[in-house]
Design brief:
4 strands; 4 helices; four-stranded antiparallel sheet; 63% helix; alpha+beta
Length: 141
């Protein structure tokens, strides 16, 4: 009986050791893949300076509430009509966009900006927030 228990303990220790080795090997492979991807991405950023700007703008469009298809059109410079809710991380609130026109534009330095009704989206949100505050103020009076 004691021999069986001792063998089970030995087998369990072997299994733990094998698992730890396999886990370390997998972690090392993952770290190598991440390192390679970072190297490739940095190279792509050097070759295509606008890539980083496009990736950031894609993230912003998705955070504001545009779906992937709409974001793709925006990143291709197309103007889209949009109705629905847009989210502002700055104001931590949503604003209803009723049949607005959205477009990503480039300035002379090739920076990208999202516009709603031909104004920067931050200005559009500011106006929506002020309109909402004015409505709340009027209803309290």
């Amino acid at each position: 009986m004691n021999d069986q228990i001792e063998r089970l303990h030995t087998d369990m220790q072997k299994m733990k050791n094998n698992h730890a080795r396999e886990l370390n090997r997998t972690i090392e492979q993952h770290q190598q893949e991440v390192s390679n991807l970072k190297r490739i991405l940095n190279k792509a950023y050097r070759w295509f300076p606008s890539l980083k700007r496009f990736l950031n703008m894609e993230r912003e469009c998705l955070e504001y509430g545009f779906n992937a298809e709409q974001t793709d059109k925006l990143l291709h410079g197309q103007r889209i009509n949009y109705s629905g809710w847009l989210h502002s991380n700055e104001y931590r609130c949503n604003a209803l966009a009723d049949n607005v026109s959205a477009q990503v534009i480039r300035d002379e330095k090739r920076n990208l900006f999202l516009q709603i009704n031909e104004m920067p989206i931050t200005q559009w949100f500011r106006e929506q927030f002020e309109i909402g505050q004015n409505i709340k103020t009027r209803t309290k009076i």
